[in-house]
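Request: Show me your protein:
***
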Amino acid sequence: MSESLWRDERAIEGLPIRLVIALVVGVACLSVMMSTISGIETLQVTEVDVQPHPEVTTPGEREVTVTVVDPEGAPVSGATVVAKSGTATLDSVATAETGAAGNATLSLSPSLGANQQEGTVVFDVKPPASSSYQDSRSNTDLLVVGS
């Protein structure tokens, strides 16, 4: 009897089609699960950016209004804006919180080094704690040009 089982090749005939069916069903199930997960709002995060006003300034004491916006351009209130030295130098780090219109006003005093014609002030955003916002990409910088 063991020799008859050894020569029997019928069991292998249906194996490839069963593997293909299992693969198709598995991919379909994975697709349904991924669309369900991506539809859950609490798992999605939204990147924020800043819009400094003015976008270009000169060295010296200045007030700069920074608007924090989401990708659609809607203002984000309750976010903390941090201004730091980039290639232009600030005396210290400046912070301010955005109001209902998404605006924060910062008093900055950027300066440029010797023989430096332009530089940047860099902004970081700490989104509101109870929101789905994040700030992981670089934001729009303030350009400082020498006179």
